[in-house]
From TrEMBL:
PROSITE patterns linked to this entry: PPR (PS51375)
GO annotation, biological process: RNA modification
Single GO term (MF): RNA binding
Keyword field: Repeat
Xref: InterPro entries: E_motif (IPR046848), PPR_At4g14850-like_plant (IPR046960), PPR_rpt (IPR002885), TPR-like_helical_dom_sf (IPR011990)
PPR repeats: 43-77, 144-178, 245-279, 316-346
NCBIfam families cross-referenced by the UniProt entry: PPR
Pfam families assigned: E_motif (PF20431), PPR (PF01535), PPR_2 (PF13041)
Name of the molecule in the record: Pentatricopeptide repeat-containing-like protein
Length: 425
């Protein structure tokens, strides 16, 4: 094509662009740019391929300069051009630019088209402006299953789990079939809310439609049942999945550990290794959590060090948190403090909170004062650190210190939020 000069012609060059942008797993941006720069008079199709490529790259907003060039050359964008631009804005969390593209959609008469409106909902959902996404959704005269899925995704990502599940029910009543991706999102919401009943209904819906328990859908079912406390049903689904990924094993290990089945969790971990599935960082969070609840301090320490020595995995703050919890539960408070001091990353309030709770349980007021001071330093306007410090002083009958802490809370006009706990398991 280069020798014949065809690479300069828009039609054949666009086919070459399609190869470098659409058929490869990751668009080859330098090669794509080089091909595009050689085209004499690129058409809208060529620009669309370039914009789509940048939507999948690390610098999605580069596509805006391409769009400016398209307009400068007197070309008219089509629906795909603007939808690809919206994907770029969504991936870059660029709300301001996304709103500008929204205006161009209206100007070109694409606002009420299903593909365009769905892209807008996805962009506003990614940019955490749920009211705008909901307004667009309500105004749409027609909706596809992808539109419903985008709206449900936006609700769940924004923390509006009930609204997301309500949309799923409404979607089902209108006989719109949910895609696998939408069902996965809904199962995630059920797990987070502990809504076992609706989770069971979604599972029944999957069975009625005859959908295969592939890795993603099966893993989501396992995770949902485990979070709802139905660990036996989670195991039943787990064994029915024909091919299991590391994420599937991780969900099962985490679920067993969460539901006081630490021994079974560690057995699953051993089976995972025998099946040749390589554990990852998330696997070890579940393993260490299980060791902590089972009181297996030696095993937990061995697995923690094997992460880097055997599997070349760098422990993150969650692993260190599990180690502090493991040692704290066993009453080895000084060792837990030593782990915190040697951490290569700054400890957060959760890690200090685990040690603080143990100090209270084991009556170590001296260490508790040190840890309480760290928590108050990290969250000076949160009531939890002050409340636990006051309670610990009360247990030690150090009433002067109790009045001192309570006085500080009153001066800062602090009141504990009803029904809220500072430290959770």
């Amino acid at each position: 094509m280069i020798v014949s000069g065809m690479s300069r012609d828009a039609f054949p060059a666009s086919r070459l662009l399609k190869f470098t942008t659409a058929t490869l797993d990751t668009p080859h941006i330098p090669l794509t740019n080089l091909i595009f720069s050689q085209i004499q008079g690129p058409d809208v199709y060529s620009y669309n391929l370039m914009i789509r490529a940048f939507s999948l790259s690390c610098h999605p907003l580069t596509s805006l300069s391409l769009y400016h060039n398209l307009l400068f050359q007197g070309l008219h964008p089509n629906e795909y051009t603007l939808c690809f631009l919206l994907t770029c804005c969504a991936n870059a969390f660029a709300l301001r630019e996304g709103r500008q593209v929204h205006v161009h959609l209206i100007k070109h008469g694409f606002k009420h088209r299903v593909f365009a409106a769905t892209s807008l909902i996805h962009m506003y959902g990614n940019c955490q402006t749920l009211p705008d996404a909901l307004q667009l959704f309500e105004e749409m005269p027609q909706r596809s299953e992808v539109t419903w899925g985008a709206m449900i995704d936006a609700c769940v990502a924004h923390g509006e789990l009930i609204k997301g599940l309500q949309l799923l029910v409404e979607m089902s009543c209108l006989r719109v079939e949910a895609s696998n991706a939408t069902l996965v999102t809904a199962l995630c919401a059920c797990g987070e809310m502990g809504d076992f009943g609706l989770g069971r209904m979604i599972h029944a819906y999957i069975e009625i439609r005859g959908l295969e328990h592939n890795v993603t859908l099966g893993t989501s079912l396992v995770d949902m049942y485990a979070k709802c406390g139905a660990i036996d049903m989670a195991m039943e689904v787990f064994h029915a999945i024909p091919e299991k990924s590391a994420a599937t094993w991780n969900c099962m290990i985490h679920g067993l550990a969460m539901n006081s089945r630490a021994g079974a969790a560690l057995n699953f971990f051993g089976e995972m290794q025998r099946m040749g599935v390589r554990p990852n960082a998330a696997t070890f969070v579940g393993v260490l959590h299980a060791c902590s609840h089972a009181g297996l301090v030696r095993d937990g320490i061995e697995w923690f060090y094997s992460m880097s020595e055997k599997y070349s995995l760098v422990p993150n703050i969650k692993h260190y948190g599990c180690m502090v919890d493991l040692l704290s539960r066993a009453g080895r408070l000084e060792e837990a403090l030593e782990v915190i001091r040697k951490m290569p990353i700054e400890p957060d309030v959760v890690i200090w909170g685990a040690l603080f709770g143990a100090c209270r349980i084991h009556g170590n007021t001296k260490l508790g004062e040190l840890v309480g001071a760290q928590i108050i330093k990290l969250q000076p306007h949160h009531t939890g650190g002050y409340t636990f410090l006051s309670d610990m002083y009360a247990m030690a009958k150090r009433w002067d210190n109790v009045f001192e802490v309570r006085g500080a809370m009153m001066e800062m006009d602090m009141r504990k939020t009803p029904g809220c706990s500072f430290i959770s398991d």
